[in-house]
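// run 5 | inverse folding | seed 20
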């Protein structure tokens, strides 16, 4: 019986199980479908039975997938459609989120599931993964958010200030402020002249909430060294409170004097950034008269 006929007689689950075993045994040929997908280093990361089961469950989850999409790269060099290509992005994202929520608290299990999921993609799916992260944040699954972002970074992807901000926030919410501090020093803190104030403000808040006062003042002084003015008074107030706790009252007075314009009221007596209705402004002016 020809090989093509035997392939079509096999069930979809059997085909995917066979594929998973090939991946885990490092015998996937470079001309197979994975050559056309994102170059994930599956040989090092998909090595356990649990990861193979993740791949098989992906196939079972979308049982209406056409077997004709399971094909090798033709001699002409053009990739044919891959397994999972006809599945909607929404379903793929939901499947991964549910998989991650069901996994045990194991870095190896999470990384294996992510490697299995991304192996079906031709290019690294950074967009869908960002949606996955947003869904995990909505569920307040901060530990999973940290694991997914670290996996993304380990693939050489997502090296943006937005990703760094998301990781620092997740680490803080997962009660890992010291780890957030180490990440800040390694990836961000050496380039303070260009780090967005939004990210600097987040790190100052992390230090403030976790009583890492020396680190807070060091960061703010580093920003001042580049003549970077804080955009709002809440940042200055945190630094001033920190100086007071540390007993550096002269530094506190210097700080409040330097940035007093952030605390100064506008011409109609309203604090900056606070909007009043017309009737409220008239009432306040009448009281002053």
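// decoded
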């Amino acid at each position: 019986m020809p090989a093509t006929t035997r392939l079509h007689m096999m069930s979809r689950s059997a085909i995917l199980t066979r594929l998973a075993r090939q991946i885990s045994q490092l015998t996937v040929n470079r001309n197979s479908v994975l050559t056309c997908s994102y170059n994930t280093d599956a040989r090092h990361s998909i090595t356990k039975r649990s990861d193979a089961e993740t791949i098989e469950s992906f196939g079972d989850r979308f049982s209406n997938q056409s077997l004709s999409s399971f094909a090798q790269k033709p001699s002409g060099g053009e990739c044919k459609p891959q397994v999972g290509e006809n599945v909607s992005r929404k379903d793929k994202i939901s499947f991964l989120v549910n998989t991650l929520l069901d996994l045990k608290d194991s870095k190896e299990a999470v990384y294996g599931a992510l490697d299995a999921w991304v192996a079906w993609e031709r290019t690294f799916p950074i967009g869908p993964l960002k949606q996955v992260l947003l869904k995990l944040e909505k569920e307040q699954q901060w530990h999973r958010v940290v694991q997914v972002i670290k996996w993304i970074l380990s693939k050489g992807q997502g090296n943006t200030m937005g990703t760094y901000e998301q990781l620092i926030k997740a680490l803080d919410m997962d009660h890992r402020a010291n780890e957030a501090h180490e990440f800040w020093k390694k990836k961000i803190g050496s380039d303070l002249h260009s780090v967005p104030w939004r990210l600097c403000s987040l790190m100052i808040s992390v230090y403030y909430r976790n009583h890492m006062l020396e680190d807070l003042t060091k960061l703010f002084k580093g920003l001042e060294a580049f003549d970077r003015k804080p955009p709002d008074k809440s940042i200055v107030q945190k630094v001033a409170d920190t100086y007071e706790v540390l007993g550096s009252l002269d530094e506190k007075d210097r700080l409040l004097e330097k940035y007093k314009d952030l605390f100064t009221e506008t011409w109609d007596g309203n604090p900056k950034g606070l909007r009043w209705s017309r009737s409220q402004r008239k009432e306040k002016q009448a009281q002053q008269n």
